[in-house]
Write a structure and sequence with these properties.
Elements lengths: L2 E5 L2 H14 L5 E5 L5 H15 L4 E4 L9 H23 L8 E6 L12 H23 L4 E8 L13 H4 L6 H11 L4 H13 L7 E5 L3 E4 L13
Parallel strand pairs: 1-2, 3-4, 4-5, 5-6
Antiparallel strand pairs: 6-7
Helix pairs in contact: 2-3, 3-4
Length: about 240
């Protein structure tokens, strides 16, 4: 495998690449500083990946923040950039456009499947990721893109985003409810990121998965959301 990492935090990105370089050859990883809310930066990053590795097979749209105070930015990062990253991935990978097919995985949250008190905008963006991904997955199947699109919805994961709950500049009017959110975290449990990676690999390797919503929780592990109604699929053109 060859992996490209994108992050607006250059220091964190370089540290991630260095950690991978200790286990694998340095040329197998590439770090590109990128703010996913800047369309030209994201477009340029995709181009650099193709130029460096020669092809694109997997896209994981994982950038996310929890900021109820600057909610416009939360929408830009959590939803708009996921949509843009998906369309860029399809542009390079879909078979009708000269690509060889591939997999796109968009990271949502359990907050995309249920209400999240004191995090309404975060919750809205994660609902949006699920709706967009499930819809574009149906389109990809109808149009024979050769690209599978799926969503992962983790519960609470031990990453720096959890620290945002303690910051007024992130929580804004909901800052006084931080202890309630911490109680929720304790109730549901906090997972190690490794189980999310396990779910990611499952989606990459299982060619039958398209339009699926994988849930990962501390209590039930990896499982899938079940929907009572199958989406209407128009006849292929």
């Amino acid at each position: 495998a060859q992996v490209a990492l994108l992050d607006r935090n250059a220091e964190a990105g370089q540290q991630s690449k260095a950690a991978l370089d200790e286990q694998f050859e340095a040329q197998r990883t590439l770090f590109i500083p990128c703010d996913v809310t800047e369309p030209e930066q994201l477009k340029g990053a995709f181009k650099k990946v193709i130029e460096h590795f020669g092809r694109l097979d997997i896209v994981v749209n994982n950038a996310g923040v929890n900021n109820e105070k600057d909610w416009e930015s939360t929408i830009q990062i959590n939803l708009t950039s996921v949509i843009r990253g998906t369309y860029l991935g399809l542009e390079y990978m879909r078979k009708g456009n000269g690509g060889d097919g591939g997999v796109i995985i968009n990271i949502s949250s359990l907050a995309g499947l249920m209400p999240a008190a004191f995090q309404p905008v975060y919750c809205a963006t994660k609902h949006g990721v699920i709706g967009f991904t499930r819809s574009i997955a149906v389109t990809a199947s109808m149009e024979n893109y050769g690209v599978r699109l799926n969503t992962i919805c983790p519960g609470f994961v031990n990453t720096p985003i959890l620290q945002s709950i303690d910051k007024e500049e992130n929580m804004g009017q909901y800052y006084s409810y931080k202890d309630e959110i911490k109680n929720m975290m304790q109730f549901y449990g906090v997972m190690d990121p490794s189980i999310i990676a396990e779910g990611l690999i499952t989606i990459i390797e299982d060619d039958t998965l398209n339009g699926e919503v994988m849930k990962i929780t501390a209590s039930q592990g990896i499982h899938f959301q079940e929907y009572s109604q199958t989406p209407y699929t128009p006849s292929k053109r």
